[in-house]
Specification:
13% strand, 8-stranded parallel barrel, 293 residues, 8 strands, alpha/beta
């Protein structure tokens, strides 16, 4: 039996505006271990007229441990039915990709909604658990996480949690508590360096995680964050390795837990998105190998 090893995945955001077929070509030609696949790109492939069988055939040669993502996991009351519909659609795509898990994220995804709420301004549209006390936020979120895990289990899937840095319950401590309250065996979390950074978590906090709770890692960077509600497009507009995070410290913190699994390069650098995606992905892979392996 082959011993487990660290795996480097191509994230679909490396070539953000490219179709799924280009992601597959990049991963194949550059020797990535697999992909963290975008459900949006899979949907676009199907919407263009390709069949589900053709989608599954395209993805069959690739290791796809995870696809993302299901937003606003805390949807409740009138929004709850839409959460379940969206989850089932995502789980179906995951089975077509033979993926091991699906990413679920907290909300509201809209940073502007969070800004308006924090400023005491009227909020229209989805607001999630904004305005509720922490106990209610946690109860709703943990309940939904458990329900999603039960449905994912019916498809043989894990779900992995990522809390957005501008949303309630955004720290690793919050996420560990939420997972413990949900109390399902198929729930994990993803360690995203940027969301950890803007939520106040540090490499020391990461090093205290139970390795068995970690599904994967988003190895990414940031510009300087001075506090307040984080502006993701601005703060993440930097090439990985050229920001303020000491990536060696963050990587070593994850590895110190004993975690062995997949690492993915989520990328928000606009300049690199307009560059040669093959060159960007090749450079990222070399950098990740130097840090991780």
């Amino acid at each position: 039996m082959t011993a487990p090893r660290q795996k480097i995945l191509l994230h679909s955001l490396v070539a953000r505006d490219a179709p799924m077929a280009m992601d597959l070509l990049i991963a194949q030609q550059l020797g990535y271990d697999g992909l963290e696949m975008s459900a949006a790109k899979m949907r676009a492939f199907l919407d263009a007229g390709w069949s589900e069988a053709e989608l599954a055939a395209r993805l069959q040669p690739f290791d796809i441990p995870a696809i993302g993502f299901l937003p606003d996991l805390e949807r409740h009351a009138a929004d709850e039915a839409a959460l379940i519909r969206d989850a089932e659609e995502l789980f179906h795509l995951a089975t077509l990709a033979r993926a091991g898990g699906v990413q679920v994220i907290t909300g509201p995804v809209s940073v502007e909604t969070v800004r308006r709420h924090a400023a005491g301004l009227p909020v229209t549209g989805y607001r999630g658990v904004l305005g509720l006390d922490r106990a209610e936020q946690m109860a709703i979120s943990a309940r939904n996480l458990a329900r999603l895990a039960d449905r994912a289990a019916q498809h043989g899937l894990l779900i992995y949690l990522e809390a957005l840095g501008w949303c309630p319950l955004n720290s690793l401590t919050d996420q560990v508590e939420m997972i413990a309250r949900a109390d399902r065996p198929n729930i994990r979390l993803i360690v995203d360096f940027w969301h950890c950074y803007v939520s106040g978590d540090t490499p020391d906090r990461i090093a205290r995680l139970d390795k068995d709770l970690i599904c994967g890692v988003h190895l990414c960077d940031s510009l300087h964050y001075g506090g307040g509600i984080p502006d993701e497009p601005m703060l993440r507009d930097v090439a990985t390795g050229q920001g303020v995070l000491q990536l060696r410290d963050w990587v070593d913190a994850v590895k110190s837990t004993g975690f062995v699994g997949w690492w993915s390069g989520e990328l928000f650098c606009r300049k690199q998105h307009q560059d040669d995606s093959f060159r960007v992905a090749a450079e990222m892979k070399r950098n990740f190998e130097a840090l991780i392996v």
